[in-house]
Amino acid sequence: MIVIDKLTKSFPHKDKQGKQTEKLAVDGLSLAVRPGEVFGLLGPNGAGKTTTIRMLTMQLKPTAGRIAYGGRDIYSPGEAQRVKNMIGVVPQHVNFDQDLTVGENMELHARLHHMERAERQARIAELLTYVELADVINDNVRRLSGGMKRRLLIARALIHKPQILFMDEPTVALDPQVRRRIWDLVRSLARDGVTVFLTTHYIEEAESLCQRVAILNKGKLSALDTPANFKEQLGKFTVEWDGENGREYRFFGEKEAAAEFAGKQEASGGILIRPTNLEDVFIAITGSRM
C-alpha cells in the first residue's frame, strides 16, 4: 500500500559559527506498509516523525527519494488528486473552524471533497454515530471536550472513505479513558480495511495498536519489527532495581534466569521482575525516554 524509498528531507540551517548549511530531518528512510496494517512510527523529539508525515501527506516535498501508494509515485504529474482521494489526515493540533458547529465543520470538509448533498448528509450522520458524536451535531466545536474534538478529527478525516489514514499524535494530552476509546476506533478502522499510519509519543499506544513499529532516530531508521519480536530480541523478562547511578535494568529470555540474577542483587528499594515492554526496547535502541 505504502512504499517509501530513500526518503530524504533537508532544511536550510545555520551552524554554531553562523555558516549556512543543510540540516537533515529525514535521512534515507526506506520502508513499506501493508494494506490494512496499523503501522507505528516512533522516535524521540526531533527524530523526523512529523516531517515524514508531512511528506507522506503532500504537505512538504521531499529533497530526494520516492513515495508510492498502490505502486504509483505520489509526486508524478497528475497524481495529486488521486492521492488526496486516497488519504485522510488526523493532525496533531486541532484545526476546526471555531465559528461553526460540529455538523457544519463536517459539511465543509465533505464539500471540499465534492460530495453530492445526499451522499454527504448520509456520510456525516454515519460517521458522527460511529464516533459517538451524533447528539452534538448542532453544538459549536468550542463546546466540545478534548476527547470529543479528537474523535471529530477522526470523523472528518474519514468523510471521503480514504484507504489510508495518517494519525499524528492522535491522543496527545487526553486522559487514559478517552485514549482507550480512540484506540477502539483505530482497531475498528483496521478491521474495516483502512491502512493506519500512526505516530505517537505514547509507547504503550503503539504496543497495543500496531502490527509493526519503525523506530526513527536522528532522521534515520534504527529498527523495524513487530512489538512481540522486538521484546523477544531484547529479552522477555526485565529485572529492574535502584542502583548507584539511578534505575537499572537487565533483560533475560527466561524468567528463571531473571529470578536467579535478581536473587544475587542487593537493592534497598527492592527488585522488580516484570515482562519486558516496548518502552524498554525504545530506550535500548535510542537511549531516550519519550
Characterization of the model:
- α3 (102-112) packs across α4 and α8 crosses α10.
- The protein contains ten helices and 13 strands.
- Strands 6-7-8-3-9-10 form a six-stranded mixed β-sheet, with helices on both faces. The chain has a four-stranded antiparallel β-sheet with strand order 2-1-4-5.
- The mean pLDDT is 94.
- It has helices at 49-56, 80-86, 102-112, 117-130, 146-157, 176-191, 203-209, 227-234, 255-263, 278-286, and strands at 2-14, 20-33, 38-42, 64-69, 72-73, 87-90, 164-168, 195-199, 212-217, 220-225, 237-243, 246-252, 271-275.
- It is globular and about 70 Å long.
- Helices cover 35% and strands 29% of the residues.
- With 290 residues, the chain is of the alpha/beta class.
Report the sheet-strand fraction: 25-35%
Structural class: alpha/beta
- Provide mean pLDDT, rounded: 94
What does the overall shape look like? globular
Rg on CA atoms, Å: 22 Å
* Distance between the first and last residues' Cα: 29 Å
Low-confidence stretches: none
- State the helix count: 10
Q: What's the SSE pattern?
A: EEEHEEHEHHHEHEHEEHEEHEH
- Approximately how much helix is present in the residues? 25-40%
Major sheet summary line: 6 strands, mixed
> Which strands sit side by side, in order, in the main sheet?
6-7-8-3-9-10
Number of DSSP strands? 13
Short characterization:
The chain has 10 helices and 13 strands.
Give keywords.
13 strands; six-stranded mixed beta sheet; 10 helices; 35% helix; four-stranded antiparallel beta sheet; 290 residues
